[in-house]
Every structure is written in C-alpha cells, then in structure tokens.
Amino acid sequence: MGTPRILLTNDDGIESVGFRALYDALDEFADVTAVAPAEDKSAVGRAMSHEVDVVEHELGYAIHGTPADCTVAGLEALCPSVDMVVAGCNKGANLGAYVLGRSGTVSAAVEAAFFDVPAMAFSLYVPGGTGDWRDKATDPEDYREATNAASYLAEHALDAGVFEQADYLNVNAPMPADDPAEMVVTAPSTLYDMTAQHENSTVHLVDRVWERMRDGDIPDPEGTDRRAIVDGKISVSPLTAPHTTHHHESLDALAETYRSN
C-alpha cells in the first residue's frame, strides 16, 4: 500500500488540542484531510443533520454539524477517495459497551463502517483526582500514547487484514508514563452504574463508573477495555457496526399467533 489517505474527524472540535496532535502525527506518513466539527459536539452520538454549513480550514474543512455529519459529508462529497476514517483524539476515554452509542468520536467511526470504509476511534483516558479532569491534557505531548498507537495502526492495520474481521476499532490510551504503554486487544466492559436522584424539580444523572475508576473500585476482568486502561495499557477493541440478531423461538411463536388473537 502506498501513502494512505485518511479522513480525520472528532467530536471535540477541529481546534481541540487532541485533534491537532493526531493530525500532526498522521500527517507524517499519510495524506490527511480534516473534516471535523467547527465546535465541540461531544456526546451527541450518531445525531444527524439535514444540511450543514462547511468552512474551509487550513487542515481541511470545518463542519457546523455533528461527527456523523462529518463522516457522511466527507465520504460522499468532500474527500470521497480515502482509505480510512480516523476519529479523535477525544479528550476523555470512551470505555464500556454502554458508551459506544453516546460518543460522537466512536459514532463517527461507526458511520464510516456503513460505507464499508475501515475506521478507528481514538480517545485519551484522563484520570480524575485533584482538580477538574477537563482542565488537564492541554499539551499535545499528553496525547503521545494515543497518537503513537494511531500512527502504528493506521500504517499496519489495513495490510494486516484487521478490517476483514472488524468494521472499526475503538482505541483508548492512557496519558504518558515513564515507559511506553503496552497494547492489548480487548472487549468493551459490560459494567453499568448509572444512577439518578430526584431533588425538588431536578433529576441528577450520575455515571458512577468514573468515580469507581478513580478509586480503583472496578470489577472489570482481564480482557476488557476498562481493565486495560486502569492497568495503564492501550486498549484496542475490534468491533462490528450493524446490530446483531439471533433466532428467537419464543418470538416466532408470538408472531405466528398474532392474527389469531
């Protein structure tokens, strides 16, 4: 394979530090075109617009829309001849089965899979602790583990046949430590710990998973994405985009008797 052609998008916005860090890393060996939201569109999932305004940007195109909009606009109109869609690098991890549909970063990769275009989503785990995690990871160097993993996979995954079995990869990386992180293949964790509290006229929705990660209180076993990240490893989950279905005899029986009731 010659120089790979990559459509790069995200959900934090085209001006985010993680996006530029990933663009610069991929630009070392690939033909990269940015098609990314003009503003922060975090956690919008696969929300789709009917039309979007497009502004030319020094890196490609800034879209006044969602990450899924960016994938469709890019693959259908702005840069249709690409080998791969890469989304990221998101500030904040996208871990667990329950977040896959919420994340704009992951959703951009899922959208690409429906075009039969290989895709990868990259996110950075920013630990809690003292201070607000949103105020951390402000330097491109903080994303080094993620950008190194992205460069490695973008250079080798296609020729290795990875996308003959997976539609997209969901990759989460830790912040840099003294030694380079190990890369492990994982499955999304099934841990779910959302809670809600009703107070006066407000319901507070809290995802306790992040608090549990900060305290080291997670039951996730080896082989899951969250366990890998807590252990300081790079998690790579090979995933498929279409929802799966199975034969259900009980549902067959209900369908057969539907008109007789």
Automatic annotation (TrEMBL):
A cellular-component GO term for this protein: cytoplasm
Binding site for a divalent metal cation: D11, D12, S42, N90
Classification via Pfam families: SurE
Highest taxon of the lineage: Archaea
InterPro entries xrefs: SurE, SurE-like_Pase/nucleotidase, SurE-like_sf
Main location: cytoplasm
Catalytic activity: a ribonucleoside 5'-phosphate + H2O = a ribonucleoside + phosphate
Name by which UniProt lists this protein: 5'-nucleotidase SurE
